[in-house]
Amino acid sequence: MSNLPTDPHHDGHHDCHHDHIENSCEFQGLTVNSGVKQPPSVNPYMTRRKKRTLPSASALVEGILKGDVTMLSRAVTMVESLSPDHQAVAQEVIEKCLPYSGNSRRIGITGVPGAGKSTSIDVFGLHVLKTPGSKLAVLAIDPSSERTKGSILGDKTRMERLSIHPDAFIRPSPSAGSLGGVARKTRETIVLCEAAGYNNIFVETVGVGQSETAVHSMVDFFLLIQLAGTGDELQGIKRGIMEMADGIVINKADGDNIDRARLAQAQFRSALQLFPPTPSGWKPEVLTYSGYFELGIPEVWDMIDRYFTFARENGYFDIKRHQQSRYWMYETIDEQLRNNFYNDTEVASRLIRCERDVLNNRRSSFTAAKEVLDFYFSAMSQKQRPI
Ligand code: GDP
């Protein structure tokens, strides 16, 4: 900028375009308007805005029990937060909501990307909400969100009609932490949603890996959405996921695809016969439907209704919920222990050294592990505080 010719008439005043430096005789191009003076702040009211105060646990609980969506959302944000202050409030809220939770049908929905989960959840959700007194929360567990720091599963924009329904609450996957951590937050969110009166909970995930196990451990019914016409119908989905399914539904049974969907249905039915009996005694069913054209939706829902009647009558519904509570207790303990151990800076530096020794064959894996653990336990006992 230093070699720009200076305008002798330029007095630093910007109100008139003649005064702009490029409007001097050395510049032959278009005249330049110096524009408007910028205000000191983009939003002058910004400074007046008060910092949002942390709502108390009792205020949140009161709001949640009244079905106040804003308070529910704020409480879920606290559940998802990594801040110890927020976590302390969140845990108190969960504890207080627990007596009001449990009264819902928790349904896990999985399928590979493109299987039609969002289209189907939109339609299934509207179907469920036709029953008077129904409310629906759609939550998600997205393992990829750890990497992308954001989740699209459960995103409102994917469920157009449901997202504007007054009785639906949609929340994308929590994004921070390990899969176990993310799943635990979703499970805690279920408690809050139930306390807020949501008597149907959908938990969505992508049918490609570990996250199904996490979802399975928090739902009563596990629905697997499959596609027909992709050659070998059993490809692309792990056998373990099929074993978890209480219902397999083949989507996009419309137009030219109907016959292929029926063929896939027959293949899945015969594949399921080779599987061991389910712990509930329920025989998983295979149905075809079209989420897009809304065909076969009541039939899918009728199957789910029948499952709930079956599982409630034979007592499996309660058994499974008890097993899940126990599972989450131990999962939480495991997670906290692991975090406490690996977040310790002394432990971390010892781990680096021990790992190097092990890789250089200077010592065995077991003595290296013992050294770090011994250090950790003795440090813990010296601190004389619970882990
Ligand atoms: P997701 O990735 O599992 O959530 O799948 P989407 O719901 O986004 O659907 C993927 C694509 O399949 C979209 O282009 C949908 O319009 C289409 N789709 C979903 N359901 C159906 C269906 O029942 N029939 C047909 N023909 N297409 C569908």
From TrEMBL:
Keyword Cytoplasm assigned: no
Swiss-Prot/TrEMBL keywords: Hydrolase
This enzyme's EC code(s): 3.6.5.-
Pfam family of the protein (one): MeaB
InterPro entries for the chain: GTPase_ArgK, P-loop_NTPase
GO molecular function annotations of the record: GTP binding; GTPase activity
CC annotations in GO: cytoplasm
Top-level taxon in the UniProt lineage: Bacteria
Stored NCBIfam families: lao, PRK09435.1
Family note: Belongs to the SIMIBI class G3E GTPase family. ArgK/MeaB subfamily.
Protein name per the record: Methylmalonyl Co-A mutase-associated GTPase MeaB
Source species taxonomy: Bacteria, Pseudomonadati, Bacteroidota, Bacteroidia, Bacteroidales
